[in-house]
Structure formats: C-alpha cells, structure tokens
Design a protein that fits this description.
This protein has one domain. It is about 90% helix and about 0% strand. The protein has helices at about 1-25, 30-55. This is Transposase IS116/IS110/IS902 family protein.
C-alpha cells in the first residue's frame, strides 16, 4: 500500500543517515549495524501493524 511505501522510504532515509552519522562518529561498524537493525524492526512493526487489519478484512 502507499502507506507502507511512505514508512519504508522514511526508514530508508533515516537509517542511512543514522548509519552514516554513527560511522562518522567513529563507532564500530558492527555496533552501527546492530543499532540500525534494532531501529529497522520498529519500522517493520509499524508496517505490519497498519497492514494486518487490511489483510484480515479481505
């Protein structure tokens, strides 16, 4: 859906910027990846939360 695409694009912009900021600040690359992955789970949860009622209605 369009809402999921908006959330995904928001996640893309935020997480790319966050990874760049963390690595520029000298953080370990693995640590930055874990931080980004944890935040990505939140975006995925938001998409699932919004899409589940629509799928159940079909």
């Amino acid at each position: 859906s369009e809402e999921a695409k908006v959330i995904a694009w928001t996640a893309q912009k935020r997480l790319c910027g966050r990874y760049y900021a963390l690595t520029r600040a000298g953080k370990n690359t693995k640590l930055a990846c874990v931080a980004i992955a944890r935040e990505l789970v939140g975006f995925v949860w938001d998409i699932v939360r919004q899409e589940t009622p629509k799928l159940a209605a079909n």
